[in-house]
Amino acid sequence: MEPLTVEKLLELLKSDNPIVRRDAWLKAGPLGADALPSLADLAAKGDLEVSRAANRAMWQIVRYAGAPGRETERQAVVQTLGELVADENWPVQLRRDMVWMLSEILADEELDESMALSFLMDADLGEDVRMALQRIAGPKAIAVLKAGMEKAQGDFKAAIACSLRKCHVAVEEPPCPKLIPRKQTQVKPVGR
User: b vs e for 163-185, b when ≥16 Cβ sit within 10 Å of the residue's Cβ?
Assistant: First the structure.
């Protein structure tokens, strides 16, 4: 059997046969960062099932690169995904997926704080970036969340405060939305 190349993978992912597509994306991991731009293009432009298969192939590459002992591959995938997310020409949902992919393999020390802050404040990506930073939870990620909280307004500010609390950072204001009563009741607090 011939080795899988990026071109062969793309051909197989475009198949009408779902079994062929599945078998192809399951083998995508070792292709690494070089395959990501082509897969992103297919995920953005393919029909629904082809797009899903391309997205799953991207996830396979992320998980393969994130395995222990694959530091060089992981760094290349992080670099490529960072470049892809920064390109605003991709569909919003694909960019959101790439943010989540990065959250699985990005080390806190690799975080570009200014870029992460701009993504955090982006209307389309902000919520996903907030959750990714909460997941990373290192000093740089926390610094970005703190900087974002200074700029954020309303519900998003409260959401960032919740993320900081999850990262064990004491935040007084705004209060957690879960603790704010939604309606007046006649129930008296216990012990008063």
Answer: bbeebeeebeebeeeeeeeeeee
